[in-house]
Amino acid sequence: MPDNEASAIARLRDRIGQRASRTLGQWGVFFRGFLEHPRMVGSIIPSSRYTIDKMLAPVDWDRCDLFVEYGPGVGTFCLPVLERMKGTGRLVAIDTNPLFVDFLNRTIKDSRFTAVLGSAEDVEEIVRFAGHEQADYVLSGLPFSTLPGGVGEKIVAATERVLRPGGAFMAYQFTAAVRDLMRTDFRRIDSGFEFWNFLPVKLFWAWKD
């Protein structure tokens, strides 16, 4: 594709995304993020409440001082996590898309919450910068099946290192790619499935010994 044609398509996609974000609010921001970075957004539709409830069910909230989320998008999981979290807990959301990070920091008015522009590969540094040594739970909606080669392995390894013993790396996916990556660093992996989601989604909980 010629450079001028690719540039024109990119400008058109950006205009559509900006118009959607202005017109549709949260959904528009999510759609714009998908248009701009389709390989880094797991779905064009946010997760259902059934998926959220089932994904978060195993969390021991009394023992959760730091909850980390990769790829929070427009915060579909952020508010449910904050609703369940104790008053002294902390939620750090990490995203590579400045559009999502800006939206979350502007709209979630909770002192326990911070959205950080960065990569999940750097979770150890981000957790230390937040004033913690380890995380209790890490949740990911990143599309591991479409990440560049080697990135998924690095994310899973860094996640295992940053988790406290007894903590869990939790992921919701349309494929089982993340489970295969988890097996290298985690011995116990529980799995589930939620039909009432667009599309039906696989759920995984990898526990650190």
TrEMBL record:
Database matches in InterPro entries: Methyltransf_25, SAM-dependent_MTases_sf
Domain Methyltransferase: 68-167
Pfam family, one: Methyltransf_25
The species this protein was found in: Erythrobacter litoralis (strain HTCC2594)
Listed name of the protein: Phospholipid N-methyltransferase
Keywords: Methyltransferase, Transferase
GO molecular function per UniProt: methyltransferase activity
SUPFAM superfamilies in alphabetical order: S-adenosyl-L-methionine-dependent methyltransferases
GO annotation, biological process: methylation
Lineage: Bacteria, Pseudomonadati, Pseudomonadota, Alphaproteobacteria, Sphingomonadales
